[in-house]
Design brief:
It is a single chain. This protein is of the alpha+beta class. The chain is 34% helix and 30% strand. It has 23 helices and 78 strands. Strands 12, 14, 15, 17, 19 and 20 form a six-stranded mixed β-sheet that branches. Strands 22, 24, 26, 28, 29 and 30 form a six-stranded mixed β-sheet that branches. Strand 19 (830-840) and strand 20 form a beta hairpin. The chain is extended. Residues 1-70, 405-417, 432-520, 530-537, 697-796, 1203-1230 and 1563-1574 have low confidence and may be disordered.
Length: 1698
């Protein structure tokens, strides 16, 4: 009450004191509250401190000396005195502060008014002074006016009068201004006086305020004293606490020293033990290290050996590859050579080439089939031998395992099988002998067949092995060509170019060592026998097999050239051992054709080391003058070789330098001479004779230019080249054909020797005789035809016009030449041709033919250039040339020049007639001016497609009526330049951009033309080269026109293109200039070099500068000459094309007039998806090829066995890798997926992406982004649909985007730069590790951008430095707190590039649906039996939920909860106990399976609840909780159940007992047996309450029900059903009760509902409730009785229900 009174007084006081400040208090209410609040907080804080001090004083510390106690008491006493002073209340302070502020404002207002008054007074004084000055000036002007009036100066008078009027006006204005200032001054004075009056009223308040401020200052000082005392008390307490802490620290230090001593002692003991163990362990470590060093050394040596073997294998592989290449080339060359030889031979024989070649190919195919059959036969033999060997091994094994007695018994069987075995071996030996005999250079030694039976059984293995080797040797002939060595040396010197098909033996033969012992002598003799027989083996030296010729000769061919019969010639050659080891060499012989003429002088040198040589002398004494060929054969240790020998005699090789002499055109009577040269390049001279050919009787002439007839050459193609004919007929047939001197030699190589050659010659002779007759008949036909043609000219003898000179025969020496003269004397006009034949005395020399032709003319004049070529001419251009005419006549001739009528408009000769002097020349000017009508006028003289003009011009000799023609040639072309298209419409072009259009300029001429666009407007530009250039013939050039509008209007202009001949061609252009309402601050953005998957950002503005529609002050936005755009908000939208790595934010927006909008453009380069897919497919192909290669190699290893050497394996691997990679790739290509089928999440796709990113070389791309502009504001709901966008106002943004390789890449998660946490439950944290690698050659310092500090993402562990190639891991965590998507970017910054990681995650609120409600009732169960029930929980969220099931009965806090009051002592509304009756055995009544696990998104989980009571009770219960992630319970289900000892129950009515089981253990009902002869007592009482509602129009009986059930049980019993019956039914009916069933049977597992209804009887009193008792008997295996209490009452319909 006191506080309330104080507050009331505090509220009333300011009302009484400050009634005039109410309005100010209302205005500054907020400020007052804030200031008052601050002071109130200070005051409360001080009171709390004071209270704390008091409490501290009440609680004295222990262990403090008496002095401190006394000091503390004194301090408390002084503090108590200080606390007796009452502090000023908060309201008083608030009033003081308000009063102080208001008074201060009043003083400020007074000062302001005083300043205004002083200012007004100053203005008034100034105005008064101005009035006085004007009055004086007015007086002066009046005086001057009077003076001027007296003087009569009208001009001055008028001037002073005007001045007088102006001064009067100014004076009036100043007086008005003075009046206004005076009024204002009076108002200000009045206000100032009012304020001073107010200040006088508040003088008393000033004094009160001063007193209050003094009191407040005193209060502050007192508070300061209190705080000082408190600080002293706190310092004393701190000193006491410090002393107690020091004591405790001393005690703790002593304990620590004692423990430390103990630890030191223990450490010394442990150290001694550890030293012993360390010594032992160090010894073991040293031993282990020594062993490892030894192993490492051995491993290193093995690796060195492997590297050396690899190097050797690489060398051998290189040699084998060279061998294969050379072998392939040699085979191809040999095949071509053989085919050419065969063609020549067949042609020489006159056969059908195609047929013979086809037969030859079939023969080769037949040979291949035979070889394949031999291989199959050989493999079959090997299979037979292997089976026999296996059978032998099996029999040998059985013989060892059996006992001697069994072996003796089995001996007879073995002897019986031996004859069959011998027959098989003999068959194999015969077949092997037969196959070996077919090979001349291979010897096969079969095993001895005459050994005894015992020896046969003892040496079966040896014989089988030998025979197997012999069978395998049969393939030597088939593999003969493959073993041919054609390795070409890197430098010449020791290798022969010839091919040897023999192999080097495996062992070296050293004759000196063979003679050292008897055994070695025997080996030497054996080797020599093999050498003589011709058995050779492969020669392997230093691990390499010699595959080339072991000997080669220098020179490689013995050639005796130009020999004379009877002379002797000698030559020496050197044989060089080119093998890798010591070798032998002996002379075998020479060819049969050379034995009579050549002798060999060769001393066997014995063994020859590698690189050594020996000499062989060859003597040649020819007896016949023929060409001889053969070879000298030698035998070496590794096989035979031969040296070719060739002997050619002296012969004549004759040839002409030309076969046709063309004299040209000459006038009759002239003589012309030409020479032809006959050359002998052989060593034998001969005599020649030149004469006209037999088929040419004089000269052949055709007066009317008929075609000449000549004898064709097709007969000569069938004549064999060995036969040389000297007949004149053959000379005619073989004209114009030079015989190759080496053809006969080539034919001898192709045709077989001996009898075949003679047969061929005889056949060719008969063919030649037949051919002679054919040629003679053809020549006779030709003569008759020539005679018929010549008969038209003259029947007289034709004069000879082409004749020989002085030299017609003579001797031609060896290696010399002879010049023959041919003369042409034209006599008759026309063509002349003569054939000549040169015959030789040497029968081996074939006749040579040549011909001479000439033309005789009879006109005395001729044109020096009969074909005048004007080259290429253009239409409408003049071309001139000079035609020179020569005269052979001895008199002056009159000439007239004529051009055909068709070309008279285009061509003329000046002068048209003239005279040429005797034997002189005359020049005529030719003028050609082609008109565009030339193609139509010229007719057949002009070829329109080829544009070729051929004009015949005639020169007439007037006196002699003869004419000479010459032709004018020209190619006429146009000079047009075609511009396509002829008109260009640029459309709408904004003033902020340039529009580019293309047009094609085509040169229609076949001449190059220069062009140039001249007089271009300032807003047009043509590129390239500013519109200047040269066009090649018929070339089309695409040019770009760049148009940039400078203002908004309609443009229409023409561009002029001039050619080099000053022709003009026009190009029409039109455009519409557009001034859009918006503009971009930058139309070109050049990004910095950005790494792949990095981000570069640039900013620009979209500006709206359209604030006025006044087109006269500035340019207004409009389209062409249309109306200006309206002023207002303008919207824009950037449309980024699909697939462009550019993001524009915001892409849509609105800009208000005079404003601008910030636009952010981001460039994020990525690799093309198609490029990644193609690279992935290539990598898969390579991987498949490698896998196929490995499988093929494994199969080969299995086939070959484990005996292959390492070098052989490496060789095969290299061959497969080099030669078979393409084939394997082709095989595996069908199995690998295509680029479109590849999954982006596959490992191949990710690996290809990482590979391309690491090998990225950079790229540069340009993009043009359109920005559409529309007037109006964009509606957020409707978007831009409600706006009309004009495409004419579109702006364009050009982006230059360079992309480079990144310096840092992500290596984890297949190189993805996105970190996706997926769905994470709210409140849970997930960590992810991202590994980054430095792929640049430099050391990088990494920096990181800042993530949102309030966001869910956190960079747990950043990385500072990265060495080149180093991998480091970043850890990022995600903990969502909301149910939404989260996205952030983390930039990893380096000095040059940035790597942007996109981090995303989704916070999800777990949600589930349970199939049951809050209660799961298990029903009734027989005690000690089980019942199960299933419920389902469905995961309706998008993430996997981790759950656990908890039961309250198993809760660890259940014991603590049971310490409360029992639940039966608490009202049901206050009960919180959910765990009911439990089992006696300690096991849980309810159990759930499963108890924990995970539920996938969208899936459900079934839970099985098992109810297993161990005694009877109706109140089993428990609570089940479904807890998610171990934190939040999602569902709570109450489990209930009841158990009976007997399989029957009754329920219903009102419960009469408590739901808690008694602590006393009761026996089951079955154990309580009733005495004999007495009825069992009721088990339980059941109360049924029925309320009849009275007062309703249609009364309804009161209803209730009772349930009787039979529990399904697994106990074996005789009776499963339950029988029930009610007693006292008549009494119940009398009282008005009606039962639905008085008795009945309930089957097992069923429940029977018994309805009970009651209607009040007539004698029922409503005030007294009715109570009737009846017994209910249940019978099954036992009998139970229930007492049913029927309570009935009548309730009014209007009575309130409870």
């Amino acid at each position: 009450m006191e506080d309330k009174e104080i507050n009331y007084s505090e509220k009333d006081e300011p009302k009484s004191l400050l009634p005039f400040l109410e309005e100010d208090e209302k205005e500054d209410k907020a400020g007052q509250f804030s200031v008052a609040g601050e002071h109130w907080e200070d005051y409360k804080l001080e009171e709390e401190l004071a209270g704390g001090g008091n409490m501290g004083n009440k609680d004295p510390s222990e262990g403090v000396p008496d002095e401190s106690d006394s000091s503390m008491e004194s301090l408390e006493h002084s503090l108590g005195e200080t606390y007796n002073i009452q502090p000023m209340k908060h309201t008083d302070r608030n009033c003081i502060f308000t009063l102080q502020r208001n008074l201060k404002e009043l003083n400020d207002l007074a000062k302001e008014k005083e300043f205004v008054v002083q200012k007004s007074r100053g203005k008034l004084n100034t105005c008064q002074m101005r009035i006085k000055m004007l009055a004086k000036q007015l007086e002066y002007v009046d005086m001057e006016i009077e003076k001027e009036e007296e003087a009569g100066n009208v001009a001055a008078l008028s001037r002073f009068q005007a001045m007088h009027r102006r001064l009067c006006m100014e004076l009036e204005k100043e007086k008005d201004f003075e009046l206004k200032i005076a009024l204002d001054l009076e108002e200000d004075m009045l206000e100032m006086w009012q304020i001073e009056a107010e200040q006088g009223k508040y003088k008393m308040l000033h004094e009160q305020l001063k007193k209050a401020e003094e009191e407040l200052e005193m209060e502050y000082q007192e508070r300061a004293k209190v705080r000082i005392w408190k600080e002293k008390i706190a310092a004393l307490q701190a000193e006491e606490n410090q002393r107690s802490r020091e004591k405790k620290e001393e005690e703790a230090l002593k304990q620590y020293e004692e423990r430390h001593k103990k630890l030191l002692e223990d450490a010394k003991r442990n150290h001694e033990k550890a030293v012993c163990f360390l010594r032992k362990s160090m010894a073991r470590v040293r031993e282990k290290n020594a062993k490892e060093e030894v192993k490492n050394q051995e491993h290193t040596e093995r690796r060195i050996q492997a590297v050396l073997s690899l190097k050797n294998s690489i060398t051998s592989n290189r040699e084998k590859l060279q061998t294969l290449q050379v072998w392939n080339k040699a085979n191809a060359f040999e095949e071509k050579k053989q085919e050419m030889k065969m063609r020549e031979a067949i042609l020489a024989e006159g056969g059908n080439v195609t047929k013979e070649l086809l037969l030859h190919k079939r023969l080769l195919e037949h040979e291949k089939e035979k070889q394949a059959f031999r291989k199959r036969q050989k493999s079959r033999k090997i299979e037979i031998v292997s089976k026999i060997l296996q059978e032998k091994a099996f029999i040998h094994k059985q013989k060892k395992s059996q006992s001697r007695t069994k072996a003796v018994k089995a001996g007879g069987k073995l002897e019986d099988s031996l004859p069959w075995r011998k027959k098989a071996w003999q068959y194999i030996e015969k077949t092997c002998k037969g196959s070996a005999g077919a090979v001349p250079q291979q010897s096969w030694c079969p095993p001895s067949a005459c050994s005894s039976a015992g020896e046969g059984t003892a040496s079966v293995g040896e014989r089988s092995e030998k025979i197997l080797q012999d069978v395998l040797c049969e393939s030597s002939e088939d593999e003969k060509e493959r073993d041919t060595t054609l390795v070409e040396p890197e430098f010449p010197g020791l290798w022969s170019q010839e091919c040897d098909f023999h192999k080097v033996s495996k062992e070296e033969m050293d004759s000196k060592q063979l003679t050292t012992s008897i055994g070695e002598k025997e080996i030497f003799v054996k080797k020599m026998e093999e050498f003589q027989i011709g058995i050779f083996h492969k020669k392997i030296v230093s691990g390499r097999e010699c595959k080339r010729d072991t000997f080669y000769s220098k020179p490689n061919c013995i050639h005796f050239k130009d020999f004379d019969a009877g002379q002797t010639y000698k030559k020496k050659i050197a044989l060089i051992n080119a093998s890798y080891s010591v070798n032998f060499c002996r002379l075998v012989g020479i060819s049969e054709s050379l034995k009579d003429f050549i002798s060999i002088h060769f001393d066997p040198p014995g063994k020859m080391s590698a690189g050594m040589s020996c000499e062989v002398g060859v003597t040649f004494k020819p007896m016949i003058n023929e060409t001889l060929e053969g070879e000298v054969m030698f035998m070496a240790q590794t096989g035979s070789f031969s040296i070719p020998v060739k002997c050619t005699p002296k012969r004549c090789i004759l040839a002409l330098d030309k076969e046709l002499i063309d004299f040209g055109s000459h006038v009759v009577g002239e003589t012309i001479s030409r020479t032809i040269t006959l050359t002998n390049s052989g060593a034998l001279g001969t005599r020649f004779k030149v004469q006209a050919s037999a088929g040419d009787s004089g000269t052949c002439r055709a007066a009317k230019a008929s075609p000449r007839r000549m004898i064709t050459r097709h007969f000569s193609d069938h004549i064999p080249e060995e036969k040389v004919s000297n007949s004149p007929v053959m000379s005619v047939v073989e004209k114009k054909e030079q015989i190759c001197p080496d053809r006969s030699e080539k034919m001898t190589n192709c045709v077989a020797e001996g009898e075949q050659r003679r047969t061929e010659r005889s056949r060719s002779c008969g063919f030649i005789e037949q051919l002679d007759q054919d040629v003679l008949s053809s020549s006779s036909d030709l003569d008759t035809e020539n005679e018929h043609n010549l008969a038209e000219i003259s029947h007289d003898e034709t004069p000879v016009e082409i004749m020989l000179g002085k030299v017609t025969e003579g001797e031609i020496e060896p290696f010399s030449s002879v010049k023959l003269q041919v003369m042409f004397v034209p006599a008759i006009p026309g063509d002349v041709q003569t054939e000549f034949v040169i015959m030789f005395d040497n029968s081996d020399c074939k006749p040579l033919c040549f011909s001479a032709i000439g033309v005789s003319i009879d006109v005395p004049i001729w044109v020096a250039n009969p074909n005048i070529d004007l080259k290429i001419c253009m239409y409408d251009r003049l071309y001139q040339d000079c035609v020179v005419i020569h005269s052979r006549a001895k008199t002056t001739l009159c000439l007239k020049f004529e051009v055909c009528k068709e070309l008279s408009k285009h061509m003329e000769l000046l002068p048209k007639s003239g005279y040429v002097q005797a034997q002189s020349s005359f020049s005529v000017q030719l003028k050609f001016l082609p008109r565009p009508s030339l193609p139509e006028d010229a007719g057949s003289y002009f070829h329109k497609e080829m544009r070729v003009l051929e004009v015949p011009v005639t020169i007439l000799i007037v006196d002699k009526a003869k004419k000479v023609n010459f032709t004018v040639h020209a190619i006429v072309t146009t000079s047009d330049l075609e511009i396509s298209p002829a008109q260009i419409d640029f459309g709408y072009c904004t003033i902020y951009e340039a529009v580019q259009a293309n047009f094609t300029l085509t040169n229609k001429s076949i001449l190059p033309q220069e062009f140039g666009f001249v007089g271009l407007p300032e807003f047009v530009e043509i590129q390239p080269n500013d519109g200047l250039g040269i066009l090649l013939p018929l070339e089309s050039l695409t040019l770009d026109i760049i148009f940039k509008a400078n203002k908004a209007k309609e443009y229409s202009f023409e561009l002029t293109c001039k050619s080099e001949i000053n022709r003009q061609f026009k190009l029409s252009c039109k455009a519409v200039g557009v001034h859009p309402p918006l503009e971009l601050s930058h139309s070109l953005v050049q990004f910095a070099a950005t790494a792949l998957n990095g981000v570069s950002t640039a900013t620009l503005y979209v500006m709206n500068s359209h604030v006025s529609v006044n087109r006269f002050t500035h340019a207004v936005p409009r389209i062409g000459s249309g109306d200006p755009a309206a002023v207002g908000p303008t919207s824009f939208e950037f449309c980024v094309p699909e697939g462009c790595p550019v993001t524009i934010t915001p892409s849509v927006g609105t800009v208000w007039p005079g404003k601008k909008s910030l636009i952010r453009v981001s460039f994020r380069p990525t690799l093309s998806d198609q490029l990644i897919r193609e690279e992935a497919v290539r990598r898969l192909g390579r991987a498949a090829a490698a896998g196929a290669e490995i499988q093929e190699r494994r199969k080969d290893d299995k086939r070959k066995g484990k005996k292959l050497s390492i070098s052989r394996q490496q060789t095969s691997q290299q061959l497969v890798r080099d030669g078979g990679s393409k084939h394997l790739t082709a095989l595996s290509g069908s199995e690998q997926p295509t680029a479109e089928e590849l999954n982006p999440d596959s490992d191949a796709y990710m690996a290809a992406q990482a590979f391309l990113m690491r090998n990225f070389s950079g790229r540069f791309e340009k993009y043009v982004i359109p920005c559409f502009v529309a007037s109006g504001h964009i509606d957020e709901k409707k978007g831009s649909e409600n706006l009309s966008c004009s495409p004419c106002n579109t702006l364009y943004l050009e982006l230059h985007c360079p992309a480079v390789a990144p310096a840092v890449v992500v290596t984890s998660d297949n190189g993805k730069d996105t970190v996706h946490f997926g769905d994470v439950a709210i409140g849970h944290r997930m960590m992810k590790r991202i590994t980054v690698q430095n792929i640049s050659p430099e050391k990088l310092e990494l920096g990181f951008s800042v993530l949102n500090p309030n966001g869910p993402f956190l960079l747990v562990r950043p990385v500072g430095m990265l060495e080149p190639g180093e991998n480091r891991a970043l850890i990022i965590s995600f903990c969502p707190d909301e149910d939404k998507q989260f996205y952030e970017t983390l930039d990893i910054r380096t000095a040059r590039t940035n790597l942007t990681l996109s981090i995303s995650g989704c916070g999800v609120m777990p949600s589930t649906v349970c199939s049951v409600g809050e209660v799961l009732d298990m029903g009734y169960v027989v005690a000690r039996e089980k019942a199960t029930s299933t419920f389902q929980i469905q995961n309706t969220s998008t993430l996997t939920l981790r759950y656990s099931i908890q039961l309250d009965s198993l809760s660890p806090t259940r014991d603590r909860d049971q310490q409360r009051l029992p639940s039966f002592l608490i009202s049901p509304l206050q009960r919180t106990e959910f765990v009911g009756t439990q089992n006696y055995n300690g096991l849980s009544v309810f159990s759930v399976f499963p108890t924990e696990g995970e539920i996938l998104a969208g899936k459900s989980q079934d839970f099985v609840v098992t109810f297993s009571p161990d005694h009877e009770s109706l109140y089993y219960s428990d609570r089940l909780k479904v807890v998610l992630f171990g934190k939040r319970p999602a569902h709570v289900v109450l489990l209930k159940g009841a158990a009976r000892d007997q399989p029957m129950f009754v329920e219903g009515g009102v419960p009469l007992d408590v739901p808690v089981e008694s602590l006393a253990v009761t026996l089951p009902t079955s154990s309580l047996e009733a005495p004999k002869g007495e009825l069992p007592e009721p088990v339980k009482s059941i109360l049924l309450v029925l309320e009849y509602i009275e007062g309703e129009h249609s009364p309804v009986p009161a209803m209730t029900e009772l349930r009787v059930g039979a529990i399904r049980t697994t106990q074996p019993a005789s009776k499963k059903n339950v029988e029930f019956s009610f007693e006292s039914l008549p009494l119940l009916q009398q009282k008005g009760f009606t039962l639905g069933a008085g008795k009945g049977t309930v089957e097992s597992g069923q429940v029977k509902l018994i309805s009970v209804s009651w209607v009040p009887p007539a004698d029922f009193h409503a005030d007294d409730p009715l109570l009737v008792t009846a017994l209910l008997t249940l019978k099954s295996n036992v009998e139970e009785r229930y007492q049913i209490l029927f309570v009935a009452k009548v309730v009014s319909a209007n009575a309130p229900t409870e």
